[in-house]
Each structure stands twice: as C-alpha cells, then as structure tokens.
Amino acid sequence: MRALDRKLFRDLVRLWPQSLAVALVMACGVATLLMAIGASRSLDETRSAYYERYRFGDVFASATRAPMSVAAVIAGIDGVAAVDARVSVRAVLDLDDMAEPGSAVINSLPPGNQPAVNALFLREGRFPEPGTNEAVVSDNFAKAHRFTLGSTFRAIIDGAKTRLTIVGTVLSPEYVYALGPGDMMPDDRRFGTVWMAESTLAPLAGLEGAFNSLGLRLIPGAAASVIVEKIDDLLNAYGGDGAYLRKDQLSNAFLDGELTQLRGMAFIIPPIFLLVSAFLINMILSRLIALEREQIGLLKALGYSRVQVLWHYLKLVLVVTAVGILIGIVAGNWLGTGMTRMYSEFYSFPFLIFRRDPDTYLIAAGVTLAAAIVGAARAMGAAFALPAAVAMRPPTPPVYRRMLGGMLARFNPFSQLTTMAIRDMGRHPVRTGISILGTSFAVGLFTIAMGSMDSVVFMMDAIFFRTDRQDATLMFSSARPPSALAAVGHLPGVLRAEPNLWVPVRVTNGQYSRQLTISGRSADADLSRILDLDLKPIVLPESGLVIGDRVASTLHVRPGDLVEVEIMVGQRLSAAIPVTQIIQSYIGMMLFMPIDELSRLAWGGPRISSVNLQIDPAEIGAFYRAVKETPQVGSLALQANSRQRFAETMQTNMNTMLVVYLVLSVVISFGVVYNSARIQLSERARELATLRVLGFGRREVSNVLLIELATIVALAQPAGWAFGYLLGLIVTSSLSSDLFRVPFIIEPDTFAAASLVVAAAAVVSALVVRRRIDRFDLVQVLKTRE
Predict the structure, then answer these.
(1) Is the dihedral of CA 317, 320, 324, 329 positive or negative?
(2) Which of 60, 125, 433, 470 is a good FRET partner for 324, with 20 to 30 A between their CA atoms?
(3) DSSP 3-state helix, strand, coil percentages of the chain (rounded to 5)?
(4) What's the fold here for domain 494-615?
C-alpha cells in the first residue's frame, strides 16, 4: 500500500462516524430514486406489456340497444383494427357469505371465448360453455369469497334471479383497478366482474342479436378523434352516450394517476438528500484540508504533484459515496420490492415484478457521485491551489471584531460560555446558515408525511360526513320515472329517500371541450349535499350549472359564462347554459344542475337514476333482503363499507409512508447535526480543553458546543415548517388529476410532531459528541502540533 493510500485508510478509520452519517444521507437519496424510478418503470412497462398482449381497447362506447350490423359498419371505419361488440349489464349479487347485496358487471363472451378486444387471462379452470349458466369471475373476487371451481352464487340480471356456476377465474386489462359503484377503493368482496357466454347472457338481458357495449383497437397512427365522432354518429340512433378514449377509461386513469405520483416522487424527494449530502461533504472535506494544511504543504515539498494530492482527497469522497450508493441500492431494492407487493393488492396484473434496469442504477449512482463531487469541489480546489511554501506556514490568524458594534458586550443577558457559542455562530455565518437549512429539510420532510395524514382525515370528513352522508345509494339499471322513488321509499327500513339523475354530456367552451356527467339534485337534498369553498352547503339555483373548480380550470370558465351542453342520451338536445357558481371538489369532474331542469333537457319529463337512502339500522337485514328481490336494481353502494375500505387502505398506506419519512428525517437530522458538532469539536478542541484546565466542569464546557447546536436546531424549526408547507403544496398540486384532488392540510400539532422527531435525533447526536468531550485527553489536546 502506498503512503497516500495508508493515510487515506487512517483518515477513514478516524472519520468513520462522520463518513457513515454522510453515506446514510446519500443512501436515502439513492434508495428513494431507485424506488420511484424502478416502481414507475415496473408499473408502466408491466401495464404496456399486459395491454398489448391482451389487446386492451383504444376506444370505448356504449348504447342502449344497437344491432350487430352496426358493429360491422364500425369495423369498416378507416383506422379501426378490431371491434368487440358485447352485452354488458350491471347485476345485484346474492352471496351466501354476506348479508348485504353485492354488485357485479357481467359481460358476454363471443364464440371461441376470447374477445378481439380486452382478451382474458385465464388464471384457473376453463371458459363457460354456450347455452349454460356457467361463468368465469375475476380472480380477486373469487379469492375474497374463497370460491373454488364449481362454486355457485345468485345474480339478478334484468330483474330475474339466476344461479351461476363458476368454471374459471380470469384477469382482464379492462379491470386492472376494479371499482364498484360508489366506491373510492377496490372492494373485491362486494364487487366483482363476471363473464358468460353471449348465447346465455343476451337472452337474459333482452339483447339477442344486439349489443350495448363496444371496444375498439385502432391501427397505430389512426385519427382517434375522428373515429370517436363517427362512432357517436352511428350510435346516436341507438341510445349511444358518447365514445371515449383509453385515457378516460376508469381503470387506466387510476393507473395514470399512480404513475404521476411516482414520477413526482423521483423529481422532488431525492434532490433534497443529494443537496444535504453535498453540503456535508463540503463541511467534512473543508475542515479536513484546513487541519492538514501543513501536511499538504509537506507532501508537495516532497515531490507529490498537485494532481496527486487532489486525487488523494477525491478518493476519500469516492469511498464515502460508494458506501452510500451500495447501501442505497440495497435499501432501494427492498423498498421497491415492498412497493411492488403493495401494487399487487390494488392492481390485478397477471404478473408484476420490480424492474432492476442497469441504467436506473447508473442514473442513481451518477447523480449521487455528481452531487458529492460538486460538494467537494471548493475544498479540493483550495488544496490544489495552495503553494507548498504557503501551506507549511501557519494560517493567517483570524481577525476578530466586536459583534453588533459592542452592544453584545454592554447589554449581554447571557453567560460568558453562551456568548462564546453565539460569537462562533456569527463568525461562521455560511456554515451556520447551511446547517440550519439542512436541519430544516429534515423538519420539512416529516411535516409533509404528517400533513398527508391530516389531508386524508380532512378528505374523509369532507366526503363521508359533510358531503355524502347517506347510508346507501340504490342505482337503477336505467333511468326510471318518479314512481320508482316512491317504490324505493316503501322498502323496509327506509327513513328518507332523495333522488339523483346522472346524465352524460359533452360540455364545450370555445376551443375547450370535455365529456362529463352532470348530477341532477333536488333543491331540498340533505343526504348528499353540495358544499362551497368553506364546506358549507349550498342550494342549487333554479337553473344553470354549478361546477367543480377542476372543471372550471379545464374548460377555462368563470361564473356567468355560457357553455354549450350537448346531452348524450334521451332527446340528445344541445343548449347554452350559464355557469352560476364554482365549488371546491375533491372527487372527479363535478357538475350539478337542478334535477327538474336536467330531466326536462334530457328526457322531456321527470326521470331518476339513483336514490340516496337513510336506513333504520334495526331494519338493515330486511332492507338487504328486499333489494335482492327487487327488479330494475342495478347496484347498491353502501357508504359505511366504502368509508371503512377507504380508511383501512389509506391508513395502511399512510403508516408505511410515515415510517419511511420518519427514517429519512432522522437520517438527515442526525447527519447534519452530528457532522456540524464533530467539525466544531475539531476546531475548538484546544479552546474547550483550555476551559477545562481553567476550572470549568465537563457540563459547562459541553454547553459551549451544545448551545450552538441547540440554537441551530431551534432556528431550523420555522424554516422547516415553511419548507414542508411549500413542498406539500407543490406535491399535492402535481398529483391532482381528473379523478381526485387531495387538499394539503396541516394541523398545528403536525408541526410540533415534526419538530419533536428532529429534535430527538439532534439530542442523540449531541449526546454522542458530549461523550467525546467528557473523554478528552487534556494533555494530548493541548500539545503544540509539530
């Protein structure tokens, strides 16, 4: 081993605690980058491969009843590669292992069983035989009920109860993220997807020789918007409610939202760790070079070139960086694998693996190495430029001045030891400022994590307790006359029933246009309320549109603007309707109108699509039994089940995220505080030892250093709160989509919790340094350096 390499080894042994602290900060940056990029690529490429292999549709449409001859015409449109015209119905399920009704979408299978669009992955068993009541069901639904091949369950299809026999379990690219009616999270126990032979399902649904659902695959480069317009023209006469592209398909839209979150994580969190690690590298290396100034001069005088000296210190940086990268790779793989397992609980893929692409590791290692070199550049530049003759002389003594014009000396409320700490901070403002900034990053990270939990609690309160307060929502298979409301009101246990009308529309404002759904509400609706920006209920005006803020920004409209509304069902009218009010919405692209006006525009008379219900808990069993026997019920959404499922899912995810952010915050705070303390200790060791010789006790001498650390940590708190709040706003804004928008809410105790966590990590760092002060060898420290 060469002389400089032996010196490097001794430096690493002597500085191992500081080096490890820096390496851990780097490792956090590498791990979060690998996790975000790796998980994003895994999800994206798995989805792409699954969609391509199983022919996921590019365009979707539905109608009331269209003859199969129309499907042949659509197949002949330029740019259309394949068409699957099928029967698709919503059904209420009567399941032996649960009292409440379940819900399902039942789709038909063509002869040969594999559709030309949205093919099925057969997990177990076989496909159903034509002319039988055999069915295949989604794999997650079967697992939730412990169904095996040969199990049976009852389904109410178009008012008729039919017993279906399970002969296989499948996965479909159309239902990777399968949401039941009224649910915000998948609930495989209450909602399933079912496929039956077309020859069996079509007669049950009254659609022999016809279809009501359509999926298309397009030729690459085809004009999708033109094809959508042609499909709408062809299906208008058959009750078509507007074709839409893959990006608006519900399951795919949720996957897009998840990918957006992962990409946001990759661009927001890792740079924080890389910035902190660059700062720590600069601190350690600058102090090491300052302490070894004479050694550097001696090395140059003995014939070592400037490049050799520079390479010696660069190797120290490279070793620390390599350790950080290796730890980060191990942690990133572990976190990525865990995230992949979490995906498997929400997304129904036939396969889902965590990608370990070499370029991902190269990117993580490259940006980490670049950050380390940038942090070391200034310190290494000083070592490179220092002439041997100058380096071998003692450094120029510092110039001391009175702080604040001597006011601190005349009006000093502090002890002399505290004054020493304050003066040292004032004489190193850059280092003090960067230490405060680094510590504030730790506070900010944990503030974001805690704030996310506050946001979820706020969302649950706003959605489940302030807005949608009904016990259940009963949805019809098609729009019904007002007499259906009275019939529902007479079901056992129903205390209150309020009607809704859902109408698909195309809303246009100049060059901006979106296909949306308007919800018609009655003026006295109380179970499902519309809230303003202050979460206070509003009363719908007699006419006009009330729209969510997300819709307003998408269509660039303000209150008082006229928008063109094209009704996609019923009379298919178009009308210019004024926007009367803009409200805050957290779920979907919300539009509201008075139910009477919407009914008149769409159907020319009163209609309802669903009914919100308040139910007597003592009669809930009788209510469930009645729903299972009621024709024309398409599905039943239970608010308590949806709320519980949402809470359980979010609680699990939030707890996992909280633990991860807690570890990241502790690593940053420990790395910054510990390295700052060690550097100050190395600079002031002689000073502190002198105080001991003069008669000051261990506790008093330690306070000189600990007061400075406590001041840095205290000043970092408000900066960290502001940083966390600002970063939280940026993160939540970047994650907003047409499906949901999470508000960033921070309660006061969140700031306190974040500060306590960082303060605890700082206390541990300070105690480690205090122990070193207590074990000072006074004679060794006070020796004059040769």
Answers:
(1) positive
(2) 433
(3) 55, 20, 25
(4) Barwin-like endoglucanases (2.40.40)
